[in-house]
Amino acid sequence: MAAIKNVAIVGASGSLGGPVLNALVKSGKFNVTVITRPSSSTSFPDLVTVRTADLSSVESVTAAFQGQDAVVSTVGTAGLQGQTILVEAAVAANVTRFLPSDFGSDLANPKTGALPVFKFKIETHKALREAAATKPEFTYTLVCTNAFLDWGLQMNILLNWKDSKPKLFDGGKNVFSATTLDTVAQAVVGVLSHPEETKNRFVYVKDIDISQNQLLEIAKKVDPGKTWEEPIHVDTAELEKSSYESLAKGEVTPPVMVAFLVRVIFGPSEYGNRFTKTDNELLGVKGKTEAEVEALLTSLIHDSK
Questions:
Q1: Whether 134 contacts 231, CB under 8 Å
Q2: How far apart (Å, rounded) are the C-alpha atoms in residues 223 and 16?
Q3: How many other CB atoms sit within 10 Å of the CB of residue 5?
Q4: Contact by Cβ (8 Å): 65, 71
Q5: 112, 118 Cβ separation under 8 angstroms
Q6: What's the predicted TM-score (pTM) here?
Q7: Cα dihedral 204/132/264/242 (nearest 10)
Q8: What per-residue confidence (pLDDT) applies to 304?
Q9: From CA 72, how far away is CA 99, in angstroms rounded?
Q10: 11-32: per-residue pLDDT in tens?
Q11: C-alpha–C-alpha distance, residues 96 and 69, integer Å
Q12: Backbone phi, then psi, for 250, in 5-degree steps?
């Protein structure tokens, strides 16, 4: 297929959107357009074109997508339900490649894809496949990254290193894949640079395979003066069971949904949380060493003091 030159990004002011935008611009390969809501006051680099659109309106978004070869969505949780609108608008605007805000767990895994927390992402997948079947010149790529490494540590999600008694899920022994935001951004550039090789499929990228126990040992190493107590042990199977029970009562709350994510990230390998094969080489991703993870944790811990 033809080379991708004009790229629009939706959600560029978010935690992931910022690094993706910077990587697209820094690559020098693309003419980058940011799509924002009319109410947005965020400023962007001079090299970027900014267009506004009502993201709840197919007509408004279609107009904003005119002239774009590709659209990258990095919307956060609140925007996931509206991604089908973005897909419909992209098709109407003759966009040829769409990258939804997937960037996470392996939803090709049936056990993972069936979890309620991924409902809106799965609906977007369906919309993408139907659009590609109806209009073959429209294509998509689903980028799997599993857990965000740097952001997950910064937010105390992968390990609550700020607490002397961090939670360890399933004994902290399960190894999972993790990816930094900058690597996710590089993967996006890689996908758009290899449109034929990445057409209408999942691609997999990771920096490292690691466990909570390993992260805890690194934290103890870089913060030797801290008094660490016995961790709090949590069973992810019990979390999942409890969440389903809450949903049955009509309790659809953030903690209920987060528990499903915890199960997928820290639970057994049957959820596909440790990638055995990746597209790192194709996408230009080098990965990270445990020493680099140690440097990352050292920086976070020292900056917090």
A1: no
A2: 28
A3: 12
A4: yes
A5: yes
A6: 0.96
A7: 180
A8: 87
A9: 5
A10: 999 999 999 999 999 999 999 9
A11: 5
A12: 85, 15
